């Protein structure tokens, strides 16, 4: 899909939404339901493969990779829903699911379920969805409620520095009825499979990290090829012969490769545990989140190095380097890859009391 995605990227960013052609291709290829059960037409990928595919899509375009990541991560909810509800929500091959997990909805108990009112932010891909997930607070505690798209109003609020085509607008529902069967709270899975055993909250963190790495890889690619032919203003030799450029490119590649290796090693280890039915302990989950946050931070640094090596031509709108710079930094701002997780890991490692409920 790379040629289509790359060809449409600039237009998608200008329009602040993925082009219909790219969306149709993502849905056709199953990129929006990579973690859904095969019994529902999902791809049911193992986590190491998912990470590699998300990074590859983000290398083509950050917003496209992000959209595939967030929709496919949300599709994993099918493992936690009653079978009849999973069929209702994801039974159609073209059904797309995304939303916002933050518990910002107010749920009032009624016969058979709840009536929900609320407004959420960071609704990546919500305008593309057939079903939308929102976190709500009920008398029994937090839940993820699933709304049909007809109940959702999207507000055009996503005017952001990067990842502009992700359509991460605010959205709301008003007095929408949600039956109990369309309310779920992981980690109580209804099926026994490796994807259902993997820490649910880690899906998004791992996915965001993979997007960051893909964007950084694209930035290195964009500066590496022109370096063989580009001559800076007032210089006589091509960029590839400059010691400074050589050092920056080598440093960028080393940082990117090391961050990717750390992330993939931790994902592979935690996936092996899930396959074996071994629950990940707090230390293992904290280390996985450390790898995610490290990948995001290093990816942002790599894009800065590549942007600097690219010189003056990097600043123009037709340069993918400026888009990579903005996309990587916006992605790295996500709470799931916050540098706070460095602190969490250290506290776990040093036996200092810390809240680990969101690991």
UniProtKB/TrEMBL annotation:
What SUPFAM superfamilies would the database entry show? Acyl-CoA dehydrogenase C-terminal domain-like (SSF47203), Acyl-CoA dehydrogenase NM domain-like (SSF56645)
- Write the record's keywords in alphabetical order, separated by commas: Oxidoreductase
* Source domain of life: Bacteria
Q: Which Gene3D superfamilies match?
A: Acyl-CoA dehydrogenase/oxidase, N-terminal domain (1.10.540.10), Butyryl-CoA Dehydrogenase, subunit A, domain 2 (2.40.110.10), Butyryl-CoA Dehydrogenase, subunit A, domain 3 (1.20.140.10)
Q: Write down a Pfam family by its short name.
A: Acyl-CoA_dh_2
Q: Which InterPro entries match?
A: Acyl-CoA_DH_C, Acyl-CoA_Oxase/DH_mid-dom_sf, AcylCo_DH-like_C, AcylCoA_DH/ox_N_sf, AcylCoA_DH/oxidase_NM_dom_sf
Q: Which residues form a coiled coil?
A: none
The name this protein carries in UniProt is Hydroxylase
**Native organism taxonomy:** Bacteria, Bacillati, Actinomycetota, Actinomycetes, Pseudonocardiales
Q: Which residues form the Acyl-CoA dehydrogenase C-terminal domain?
A: 207-338
